[in-house]
Every structure is written in structure tokens, then in C-alpha cells.
Amino acid sequence: PDPRLKLIARPVEKVDDSVRRFIDDMYETMYNADGIGLAATQVGDLRRILVLDIAQKENRREPKVFINPEISWLSEETNTYTEGCLSFPEHFADVVRPKKIKVKYLDYDGKQQEVEADELLATCLQHEIDHLNGKVFVDYIPPVKRDIILRKLKKEKRNDD
Ligand code: GNR
Ligand code: NI
Q1: pLDDT for the residue 139
Q2: Is the whole model's pTM more than 0.90, yes or no?
Q3: Distance CA 77, CA 89 (A)
Q4: Is residue 128 annotated as part of the catalytic site, yes or no?
């Protein structure tokens, strides 16, 4: 329910060392939280940066960063994935999204890249790009289910204070 998750992130103008230091910090946060992705929005920063590591093997890290990502193509075919989110701890729901996408972005060196993504990579990229646009996965699920999740999270927060 945190209102900061609804903010729209702004493009990175130049990929310099300070941006790279922030990216390294995001990798550390993602790995410490056992997430497979993290958007800057989730750590209170409004730059259009997301990091991912969808490597299936526990002891092998494949960190990836996408700066100023833009979806240039979406497939008509869809895929349903049970999604979770570090910003909605311990809540999961099925989300239907395009199965394949193409994404243009800048890499760690500021170089323009384009990738075609499928399956988990496509799902995760769409989930993270949504964060940069102030959207979260519960926006796609039935309102009844969303309200239950939000009510539980608000109650937990009250109990923390
Ligand atoms: O760690 C995460 N797992 C996950 C599982 C299914 C679909 C999307 C994700 S992303 C999530 C980390 C996160 O919240 N990123 O924003
Ligand atoms: Ni998330």
C-alpha cells in the first residue's frame, strides 16, 4: 500500500560511475532479499533502472541490468505465472501477461541494447518495468483478492509500529 510504489520513474540521462555504484547496490539488495528482480522504485529511488537474476542455479550468479527499458514489441500469445513481489511479502497471485516481448535498454556501460525475452525473463521484465511506471502485480488480479492482500499488509504494518 506504500504510495511511493505508484510514482513514475524518470529516465537516466547518463550512465556514469555514480549510476553504476547505485546498480551494484541494487544487486546486493536483490541478492540479500532473495529476489529474482528489483526495480529502483522499490528502494525509494526514481531512476528508470531495474536489475534481474533469473539464473536457476543457486551458486551461479547472472546479474543483469536494464536502464531506461522500453518494450518495443509484445506477443499476442500470453502466459500465466504465479508472481510474487518483494514489496508484497509472502503474497502470490496468478498474472496473465504477453508471453514474449522485445525490450530496448541501456546496459551497465551505457550501450544501447535490445533483447527478446520469453517465459520467466519476459514475465520478470514486465513486472519490473511496471514498477518503474508505478504499477504493481496486484493491479492485475481480481479486486476482491487485491483488497484481501492490501488489508493484510496494512494490518501487519500497524502491528509493527
Ligand atoms: O523475486 C521476485 N520473484 C518473482 C516471481 C514471479 C514473478 C515476478 C517476480 S519479481 C520478484 C522480485 C520483485 O518484487 N521485483 O520487483
Ligand atoms: Ni516487484
Answers
A1: 97
A2: yes
A3: 29
A4: yes
